[in-house]
Amino acid sequence: MKKRSNMTENELNPHNEEKGTDNRSVGIQKPEKDNRTENNDSSFKKLVNSAILIVLLAFVFIALFSFFFNMREAIIALFNPKYQALVQAIFSLLVVIIGIYIIRLLLPNKH
Predict the structure, then answer these.
(1) What residue spans carry the region label Disordered (predicted)?
(2) Torsion, CA 98, CA 103, CA 105, CA 109, rounded to 10
């Protein structure tokens, strides 16, 4: 008969599994992509685009006012004084109609 050593069965055979233990593999979870940097990038781009749009709109309004008053001066220079008021009124009406049309195109349609 062989003499048994003081080593337990698990120590002799390390590949034996203990009974009652959970042998499911534990997956390593990778940290999710940091969406904060992407959100910051997109919000910064939106902010820059908005600032550029505001500056461009300011330039357009300045140009429109300049065009409007220069056109009134041209009407005074080109037309007979008795027709100047009529032509200026027609020109102003056209500017208002075109402005309203462009604003309606730019505003989002709710229907």
Answers:
(1) 1-41
(2) -140
pLDDT tens-place string over residues 63-97: 988 988 898 899 899 989 899 899 999 998 998 89
Which amino acid would we find at residue 61? Answer: F
Q: Indicate whether 61 pLDDT > 70.
A: yes
Where are the domains positioned within the chain?
A: 38-104
How do the residues of the chain divide into helix, strand and coil, expressed in percent and rounded to 5?
65, 0, 35
Calculate ∠ Cα 85-89-91, nearest 5°: 115
Residue 16 token pair: 């034996």
| Cα–Cα distance, 84 to 72 (Å, whole number) | 9
